[in-house]
Amino acid sequence: MTDTTLPPDEILDPSDAVPEEVSFEGHSFPARPTRLRPRARLRDILWQRKAKQPGTASGDNPEYVAWLESESMLADARQFARKFAGQGSMWQNPYAAPDPRAAIEKAPVWFTAYPISMITPAGATFLGTLGSTQLWDAFQQIGITAIHTGPVKRAGGVTGWDTTPSVDGHFDRISTQFDDAFGTEDEFRAMCEVATDHGGLVIDDIVPGHTGKGADFRLAEMKIGDYPGIYHMVEIPREDWHLLPKVPKGRDSANLDAETEKSLTDAGYIVGEMQRVIFFEPGVKETNWSATGAVLGPDGEEHRWVYLHYFKEGQPSLNWLDPTFAGMRLVIGDALHSLGDLGSGALRLDANGFLGVEKSATGGPAWSEGHPLSEAANQLIASMVRKVGGFTFQELNLTIDDIHSTSERGADLSYDFVNRPAYHHALAMEDAEFLRLTMRTAREMGVDTVSLVHALQNHDEMTYELVHFATLHAGDTFMFRRKPIRGADLATLIRAELTEKIAGETGTYNALFTTNGIASTLASVISASLGMADLSALTNDDVEAIKRAHLLLAMYNAWQPGVFALSGWDLVGALPVERKQVAALIRDGDTRWIHRGAYDLLDFQPNASESTSKMPKARALYGPLNVQLEDPNSFVSRLREILAVRDRHGLATAQQVDIPAVSNKAMLVLVHRLAEADQVTVLNFSAQTISGSVRSDELQPGSKVIDMVTGAPVGEVDDLHSLYVVLQPHEGRSLLVTPPVEH
């Protein structure tokens, strides 16, 4: 058996880290560092935490208040920012405009980790494992150039002197310190060093939209200093406490019902009803507002507040336009710490579409989604990150209009939530028409494919909200299946077909997730699409069919410009866990836990039944990476070939020039311009052999056509700008089209 322990020499001493020389890329501006190395600038001030003291955990105990302040993210941000102020290094990088190609040149292929789902070697942490040279050697063989760690810092809440668990998979941050369950700051720095040694980088997280109920929120409840300015929270005077709901025993807040929300709106305290209630659940979350209980402050007064939370009750929303700018300072300080001190090279912006909210002037719902303040705040964050040499990506389900708008001044890259449900639909229905429609619409509206993160599975559900069609363009007419159809009706139709095919009678192992999508792994999306109703009865032929379709979806995402991203669940071919295995986690309706089963990338613990974080191990159809890399027919070995083609020809930063019409509904054709040739991606989304002509005015007659995987000649572009192709079930081909030499 392979030795999977982490030898001591794999963990680097962060004190050995040195600044890297600035290189000159000859871009819009001359100076741009290729990598950020750990600098340890802040270790002289952190972590100066105060010890817990005996005494009451209330505002009349100065020791408790001082302890909370020492734990707060705002206090840390003040220290972080001061270390960067007045430094010449802050002016060496262009920052005004997003630069997706520069970002992709640094990191074209991402592994998106999920900390609580990774099985590590015995005694090793998540971060220690991600910093293993053994793992990075495997990633380098596959073609992976970056790791997105997912949330690894402390999350959850603070109650009294104690911390409480996360309520949303560690996306409710309460500290700039690392969660002991995932590793240490030193291990994070070492991971960044190992990544750099393998030509890669590490992508960290910041959350500009909300925190957990940690020290910052508890200090805000006590009405101390600038802390209330961090959040969208309004103090309700005692004489109006009768408007507030009672807080049940054992709880620290209560969600407002619609009637109470209206009463407080009419009284002038809050902006009221929002455009939608995310995670709506009767009796649990009926509005986006909750009320705190009475909290004693150092002033000797009790305070009650109503606060906004777009997501769960334990995730109070940040206020980007409070006069103290406390929320903004907290977020920027956190970003500087990650990039300038820890050594990460990029940041994911989570929930960054919900940074502005405004009372309606017409009596309707408050303006929150698509608010210009969100755009301004995103520009501010993204510019600051570029200023210190990093880049950002946003993981938001937006309309195409919003993706185009934010691409002009905001994050460098955006998650491709427009085409993701569309390629699932193409596979499920064996018809790529809707996928062609979404891709063409994006191109027509000015969204450059190179600015998108094309991902297989991530930690969230298979999103099918189709917000572009269901919201802003609900009344617009689209042509689909030879008939005109309104955007709203098109979204309803596509959702219904996805639900029936993927989570219907055949896919009972998948589950609907509120109104957002379907909880599923990509392997289980495929198995349901192929009509496999019993995952326990899969044959070798079934697994091969799933693998073939999985590789097809990898080709779709990898053989076009932009970032290609995949997860551990993809690499091992994970299936969903049974509901009874995560019964406690899905009790509140969050069915996403069924697709977050644990996976073991390198067979670290073959007999483990769960991860260190107690996530049950998922069944893996493809096996660990070390075994797959020795088998030329495995999923990972075939994926390596796909990524090698992408890298060899610079496809990640090419230009998409055409999405032509096709002669078979299951076929998708993409035409891309390379430096000295064209590339054509041809995909078959059906389980049958298909054939037809690939025609595009972008293809020059007389051009020679070569298969980019095998190197074999395929033919020549004829005088009708076309070539003939035959595709086996779920086959994809990447074709190099070289123009004829002019004499």
Automatic annotation (TrEMBL):
What EC number(s) does this enzyme carry?
A: 5.4.99.16
Keywords assigned: Isomerase
Database matches in SUPFAM superfamilies: (Trans)glycosidases
Q: Which domain of life is it from?
A: Bacteria
Task: Provide the top EC class.
Answer: isomerase
Composition-biased stretches, type Acidic residues, lie in 10-23
Name the InterPro entries for this protein. Answer: GH (IPR017853), Trehalose_synth (IPR012665)
Residues covered by region (Disordered): 1-32
Extract the NCBIfam families matched here: TreS_stutzeri
The protein's name = Trehalose synthase
Which taxonomic lineage does the organism of this UniProt entry have?
Bacteria, Bacillati, Actinomycetota, Actinomycetes, Micrococcales
